[in-house]
From TrEMBL:
It comes from Comamonas testosteroni TK102. InterPro entries: BchE-like, Cobalamin-bd, Elp3/MiaA/NifB-like_rSAM, rSAM, rSAM_horseshoe, rSAM_sf. SUPFAM superfamilies: Radical SAM enzymes (SSF102114). The keyword Iron applies. PROSITE patterns: B12_BINDING (PS51332), RADICAL_SAM (PS51918). SMART domains: Elp3 (SM00729). Residues 356-585 form the Radical SAM core domain. Its cofactor is [4Fe-4S] cluster. This is Fe-S oxidoreductase.
């Protein structure tokens, strides 16, 4: 038990986002402070990238490259070696530009003579101007200088990420770092082997940053929030470093990855790194855990917490206590995070798609969980979906005002699974009444409650963009998914948003059980028409994944599929392979779908037959080419 005053450090491990802090530590820090607990936070994901992408970091990379045989030099590495001095000269000013600290550098960047250009710049070739002019002129026009420079600088950073991957750490990515070590891994062995391996440059930098953070904050407890498999390896590396140097510090693992994939954790080796592993909403388990560490609560009275028992086996302890109400979790705080050091990136030349990587958004939830919680592909049995709780518009607006006062930033991303229309209406009215002056975007279900009038109200309150799941544009499959919407309804709702000046992004899916080639071609035709008719401006196709907690995974017979037995294991469990009797090659179809959607987002091919995107013969769409146009003529 700790005799020292409780000091909690919440850490964002690599990798999450580079343009804005992942919100979990902000929520936990704000909540703990509201309960009088000393709490701090660190974003080691950002710190790691900024250290690697610095003159000293690139010199260290160059040193590693010198030890590689020439035959292992990939095109990215060869380009870096050939232009090394230019990279060393340009990295610091380019980072400053992307942080918004030196906007005038845009003039030099767009001239295409300042930044060294590696293989990633080859993507610009597809935009070559027929008259020999600016290949990006169609996207940025004559005056979009800053955005054009941001896009070029992003390509420059992506080249450097490729160099890090090819020469230093083959698992390195800006987002999905080493995710194969943890995602749906039945055994801890791959992660254990990686943690036991000789540290590479990325590991060494992360270790140094970890020790500096601990020395700076002097915590008694360190929380590592792991939202995705792509941040699990780094979280374990951080915990490993802490335990080696400061074994008295209690380390706690939680977050989205834990909540979905480690619910049946039975691997004792996890507790060589973490003293406690908590599930679901962290507020109540943390309060119980901190009481335990202060000697005020026995271990048998912990809440939703895994521990390693005296017998060396994993135990799950869950004293039944009610969760902290969503309205009482307090206001998230970004105090302690370097808000002026995040990088605004521009990966894709699409005004809606850029929101995920460009700009520093205050992330906030309108409600906990999902009010619909019926979609058959979703983890509706888990707390983050199944327990729906809201807060009043006044409480939400108070939180928004407090965050603006703290950060000086008026942009908000509502990160709900699906923000309820009733709550958004009330919040919009409250924001207008307070003259809040914010900009916001979020995720919704494209349900009929979103009328043109509500869309206008949301726009007036500051809504600039909306994302939502169309999934497979097929009424048969939407019904099988229990999505609760139809294609025509989605067209009407998205058109209402677009006409209100709100950008619309559609989440799209392929490979759902019983989905045929014809279904896929028809779905792409619907999507083409939605773009053509100005209903949506952005979209993304992802492959359906059957998870153990979804209705499909729990009741496969209802969806016409078979589930082979899962491999034996005591670590992560989430994705489930399945046998679909249709036998469709969804991987081949997926490549065509992604190529099509990329072009649609750039206004290319919207008048063409969708079969042109497939490199093999597919059936003709059964959907009439004016289906969406006719649907839009109907009254809502």
């Amino acid at each position: 038990m700790s005799a020292l005053p409780t000091r909690v450090l919440a850490v964002i491990p690599p990798m999450t986002q580079l343009n804005t802090p992942y919100p979990s530590t902000a929520y936990l820090t704000g909540f703990l402070r509201s309960r009088g607990i000393t709490a701090m936070q660190e974003d080691l994901a950002l710190a790691l990238v900024l250290q690697l992408l610095s003159p000293d970091g690139l010199r260290a990379v160059a040193e590693r490259i010198r030890s590689l045989p020439a035959r292992q030099h990939t095109p990215a590495v060869q380009s870096f070696v050939a232009q090394q001095e230019r990279y060393l000269a340009t990295i610091a000013p380019t980072i400053a530009f992307l942080q918004g600290r030196d906007s005038t550098l845009a003039h030099r960047i767009v001239g295409r003579h300042f930044l060294p250009e590696g293989p990633r710049f080859a993507t610009l070739d597809v935009y070559e101007d027929e008259e020999g002019g600016d290949p990006l002129g169609w996207a940025f026009g004559a005056l979009g200088l800053h955005d054009k420079a941001k896009h070029l600088a992003t390509l420059y950073l992506n080249d450097l990420a490729d160099v890090l991957r090819d020469a230093v750490d083959e698992r390195f990515e800006f987002v999905r770092y080493a995710e194969s070590l943890a995602g749906s891994q039945p055994t801890f062995d791959p992660l254990a082997n990686a943690l036991a391996a000789e540290p590479n440059l990325v590991d060494e930098v992360l270790e140094r940053l970890t020790l500096e953070a601990v020395e700076r904050h002097q915590p008694t407890v360190v929380l590592l929030s792991v939202p995705f498999p792509g941040s699990a390896y780094a979280a374990f590396r951080i915990a490993q470093t802490i335990k080696r140097r400061f074994p008295q510090i209690a380390t706690v693992l939680g977050g989205g990855f834990v909540n979905t994939e480690l619910r049946e954790l039975a691997e004792p080796r996890v507790f060589d790194y973490f003293d406690f592993v908590t599930l679901d909403a962290g507020e109540r388990p943390l309060l119980a855990l901190l009481e335990h560490l202060r000697g005020e609560r026995g271990r048998s009275r912990l809440v939703r917490t895994f521990v390693r028992g005296d017998d060396g086996k994993v135990q799950y302890v869950n004293m039944m206590e009610s969760d902290i109400a969503f309205a009482e979790v307090g206001t998230p705080t970004w105090d302690g995070l370097p808000l002026d050091r995040y990088l605004s990136l521009l990966d894709m030349l699409n005004p809606m798609h850029r929101l995920w990587s460009d700009g520093r958004w205050n992330k906030l939830t309108v409600a906990h969980g999902c009010y619909w919680k019926k979609c058959s592909f979703c983890d509706v049995s888990l707390d983050y979906i199944g327990r729906y709780e809201g807060a009043s518009a006044a409480v939400l607006a108070d939180r928004i005002e407090a965050i603006v006062a703290e950060t000086g930033q008026t942009g908000f991303h509502f990160v709900d699974e699906a923000a309820p229309p009733k709550a958004l209406k009330a919040l919009s009215q409250e924001l207008i009444a307070r003259n809040a002056g914010i900009s916001w975007w979020g995720n919704v279900r494209f349900e009929k409650t979103f009328t043109p009038e509500l869309a206008e109200l949301m726009a007036d309150s500051g809504c600039i963009a909306i994302s939502g799941g169309l999934e497979v544009a097929s009424d048969r499959l939407l019904a099988l998914m229990k999505k609760g919407v139809t294609v025509d309804q989605v067209a009407l709702v998205t058109k209402a948003f677009s006409e209100a000046g709100i950008l619309v992004h559609a989440y799209l899916m392929y490979g759902f059980p019983t989905q045929t080639v014809q279904d896929t071609v028809d779905a792409l035709e619907y999507v083409r028409q939605l773009f053509l008719n100005g209903c949506i401006q952005s979209g993304f196709f992802h492959r359906f994944s059957c998870t153990v907690h979804s209705p499909v995974g729990l009741n496969p017979e209802e969806y016409g599929i078979e589930l082979p037995p899962l491999p034996e294991g005591n670590f992560a469990k989430n994705d489930r392979p399945f046998i679909d009797p249709t036998g469709v090659d969804h991987d081949a179809l997926g490549a065509a779908l992604k190529k099509a959607i990329y072009n649609f987002m750039h206004g290319i091919g919207l008048e063409e037959d969708v079969r042109m995107w497939f490199p093999f013969k597919v059936p003709k769409p059964t959907v009439k080419r004016d289906r969406i146009a006719r649907a839009l003529q109907q009254k809502q």
